[in-house]
């Protein structure tokens, strides 16, 4: 449960529920569903991709639940960056699942926000830049969290910045969040992307909460486990609420379906 802000400006607690381990696509990968409890009608839908660590949907659960408290249906799939195709088929299978099945899960799959953290961020933007890989269907908006955009996207095999330089247009709003203390993927990568998008006349926002690469998704890196784990550290909780708010804003705003 996480606070949302109602019309009065006071915090409104929205109960959430989680369904874990739904199978998507021919590969048999799994995803988790986070949504408002007892909601009626179709909730705005977010597909949220984790980073390069294989099958790490669980590390995004704190952020996903916080976003769900804003009234969103948030789908978080596993995918494997060490697959032969770099994870492309898993990512695109999860997108196809989200579009087809979100309605039955309480969401709107025809108008969804595509979001990702770290390697997932470039993968999400790649879909908007090269919609031909998904039958021309762009997301409503893209949210990139702590991403690099000068490297080939896992969905397309081309770098988003190179695609922009070549004249490709995402044609949807792009929202960026990057921890100002990120030493794994420096914030300059998001700044460079924001500058390129603005130069191309596209709608882009960038926020830089005071946290690091793990903190921006409400986690902390655990060297012993070699993975991110949930944390209640104040800076991480604040940063995660920023990201959740950006997801909610992206889902509620205009954009191409």
Features:
27% strand; alpha/beta; 6 helices; two-stranded antiparallel sheet; 27% helix; Rossmann fold
Would you give an account of this structure?
This protein has about 260 residues and is of the alpha/beta class. The chain has a single domain, classed as Alpha/Beta hydrolase fold, catalytic domain (Rossmann fold, 3-Layer(aba) Sandwich), CATH 3.40.50.1820. It is about 25% helix and about 25% strand. The chain contains 6 helices and 12 strands. The protein has helices at about 60-70, 90-100, 120-130, 160-165, 190-200, 235-250, and strands at about 1-5, 10-15, 15-25, 30-35, 45-50, 75, 105-115, 140-145, 175, 205, 220, 225-230. An 8-stranded mixed sheet has the order 3-4-6-5-7-8-9-10, sandwiched between helices. A two-stranded antiparallel ribbon has the order 1-2. α1 (about 60-70) packs across α6. The longest helix has 19 residues, at about 235-250. It is globular. The model is unreliable at about 1-10 and about 255 (pLDDT under 50).
Architecture blueprint of SSEs:
Elements: E1 2-5, E2 11-14, E3 16-24, E4 29-36, E5 43-49, H1 61-68, E6 73-77, H2 88-101, E7 107-117, H3 119-129, E8 141-145, H4 160-165, E9 174-177, H5 188-199, E10 204-207, E11 219-222, E12 227-230, H6 234-252
Parallel strand pairs: 5-6, 5-7, 7-8, 8-9, 9-10
Antiparallel strand pairs: 1-2, 3-4, 4-6, 11-12
Helix pairs in contact: 1-6
Short description, anyone?
The protein has helices at 61-68, 88-101, 119-129, 160-165, 188-199, 234-252; strands at 2-5, 11-14, 16-24, 29-36, 43-49, 73-77, 107-117, 141-145, 174-177, 204-207, 219-222, 227-230. With 257 residues, it is of the alpha/beta class. The strands form three sheets. The chain has an eight-stranded mixed β-sheet, sandwiched between helices.
């Amino acid at each position: 449960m996480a606070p949302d802000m109602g019309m009065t400006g006071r915090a409104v607690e929205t109960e959430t529920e989680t369904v874990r381990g739904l199978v998507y696509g021919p590969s048999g990968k799994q995803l988790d569903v986070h949504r408002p409890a007892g909601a009626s009608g179709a909730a705005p839908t977010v597909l949220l991709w984790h980073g390069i660590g294989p099958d790490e949907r669980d590390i995004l659960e704190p952020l996903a639940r916080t976003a769900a408290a804003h009234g969103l249906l948030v789908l978080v799939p596993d995918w494997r960056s060490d697959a032969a195709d770099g994870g492309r088929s898993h990512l695109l299978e999860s997108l196809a699942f989200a579009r087809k099945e979100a309605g039955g899960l309480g969401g709107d799959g025809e108008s969804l926000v595509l979001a990702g953290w770290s390697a997932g961020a470039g993968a999400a933007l790649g879909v908007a830049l090269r919609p031909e890989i998904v039958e021309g269907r762009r997301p409503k908006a893209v949210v990139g969290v702590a991403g690099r955009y000068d490297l080939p996207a896992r969905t397309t095999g081309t770098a988003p910045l190179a695609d922009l330089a070549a004249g490709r247009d995402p044609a949807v709003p792009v929202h960026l969040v990057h921890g100002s203390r990120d030493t794994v993927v420096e914030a300059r990568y998001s700044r460079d992307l924001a500058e390129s998008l603005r130069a191309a006349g596209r709608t882009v926002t960038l926020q830089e909460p005071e946290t690091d690469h793990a903190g921006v998704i409400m986690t902390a890196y655990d060297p012993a486990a070699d993975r991110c784990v949930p944390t209640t550290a104040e800076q991480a909780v604040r940063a995660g609420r920023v990201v959740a708010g950006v997801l909610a804003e992206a889902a509620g705003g205009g954009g191409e379906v």
